[in-house]
Amino acid sequence: MRKHYEKMIQDTETRVRRALCVQVKEQGDNRGGFRDEKGIIQPKYAIYIITSAVSVYCNEKSSCYRDPEVYTMICEGLEYVIRSQHEDGLFDFVVCNFSSAPDTAFCIKRILPVLTYLEKNKKTGEEENIYQALLGVVKSGARGLVKGGFHTPNHRWAIASMLMECGKLLKEDALTDRANDYLLEGIDCNEDGEFAERSAGNYNRVNDDAMISLGRSTGDERYFEYAARNLRMMLTYIEPDGSIFTGNSTRWDNGLKIYPKDYYMAYLEMGVTLSIPEFLDMANYIFQLTVQKGIKSPDQLIHYMNHPQWIDLEHEGIWKPSAFHCFYQDSGIARGGKNGYFYTVMKEKTCFLHLSAKTMQLQLKLGGAYFEHRAFAAQTMNQLSDGSFHLEQTMKGWYYLPFKEKPATSDWWKMENDKREMVPGPDLNLQADIRETEDGLEIHVKAAGVEKAPFRIEAAVSGADLISAKQFEIKAEPGRSMILKEGSAVFANQEERLEIGPGFGAHSYIAGNFGSEGPSSFAFTLYFTDYTEFDHTFRIRIGKNIQ
User: Fold this and answer.
1) Among positive and negative, which fits the CA dihedral 95, 97, 101, 102?
2) What is the pTM of this model?
3) Cα separation of 425 and 48, whole Å?
4) Could you read off the pLDDT of 175-209 as tens digits, one per residue?
5) What is the model's pLDDT at position 514?
6) Residue 67 CA to chain centroid, in angstroms?
7) Phi, psi (5° rounding) for residue 361?
8) Beta-carbon neighbour count of residue 339 at 10 Å?
9) Is residue 148 exposed (0-12), middle (13-18) or buried (19+ Cβ within 10 Å)?
10) CA–CA separation, 116 and 96 (whole Å)
11) Parallel/antiparallel/unpaired status of strands 333-338 and 389-400
């Protein structure tokens, strides 16, 4: 992995040189801190920069090696960090969390590998000064973790893993005891490898890092298996363009385009530790992807410095996406694909189908307005014997009845309306079946139980330049839409073509009406419309030769 290592040195140098330009030099509490891309100054960001700077300051192969300017930056940054640390050892994450144990754990996570390196390799008074300053921050922060709390599932493992590592480093039983209090809850990783937050874009890798840390510090390799289980699952979450599918996340990464750069070290370490060649293939793929996309390499140089044997580990294999078909039933998500396209089917999501090719993406909804319901979000999802997926929802209708006795107030908002009797029904049953075909998908949608409710299929396509059919050809401009009443439509760009149809158009009641979800401003939306009851089948085909 020498090329990876050398590129990491170069990219870390670039990060550090840029950080020199944003360090606060003015007198005041923020002196020594760093302005992030939004102009915010906070200790967590400073710690991330300082630890990167220490890695190149101590690396003989770096142009920053023992650079006095970099050393001054580190020292002034550490002074700012120490001033910013509360008496109880905790740091503020100033954009939302104050006296935050989880963010303090993330800070310690960045510092510990640097401490590990310096403890074994410090050779100068300057390096000793850095070591002692960082050690003081960790000692104080670890004791803060004992009394701090958390908000989200992944916070538990960030805190527990750092308590466990610090307990081992500082030889303090109180830290490991507190770590075990967290671990008593059991790890929230299901048999599929999915953690509770389903955050493939961010928090899965945070959990993976925590599991690897716990495995190292406790010697219990069961924690490695949690990480490996998730890393195997993540191989099925990679889209044709190399990004991660994030549409089922319950956190801020939902729907964002994120590349798997920060998973690099987890794949490398678990590939080596557990002798899994496919994980080493993925490490190579991720690094290749950063080069292709012009993304800076992972900010993880210090891990190579702590494991120099990895530098000369040469692994030629590179992961390649291949045909797969997975149903993660506990998570309510299916992933599959072949021939250059991948698709995702999801329970309880209004975008119940996503299809991704190399340059084009499609999201599918079944929308309408039925009592308080505005779009199909499947209550159940099953895989049928032929491998297709069946999704179903019953939208229940109801009306309130008057109270049998005079209420205590005539103010509607103060009435106990949840205690009113109700008239049930009518109920509308919606079903969708998704089946793989040789060059795409077949979708069958059905509505029954109520007549003459206007519903629509919404196919939001992004990445296309043109949309055409026998009767027309128009630009596929984001934010624009049209109803396809019959036949098929083809979306096209220079690399790919996507066909969808046959369409149907019985009305013009489209997205955004009566409180429903509006159309995407980032995609061209094609509508098929009809009144319930209906039973329609249409197909999505993708490939270069579709006409």
Assistant:
1) negative
2) 0.93
3) 57
4) 999 999 999 999 999 999 999 999 999 999 999 99
5) 74
6) 37
7) -135, 150
8) 11
9) buried
10) 31
11) unpaired
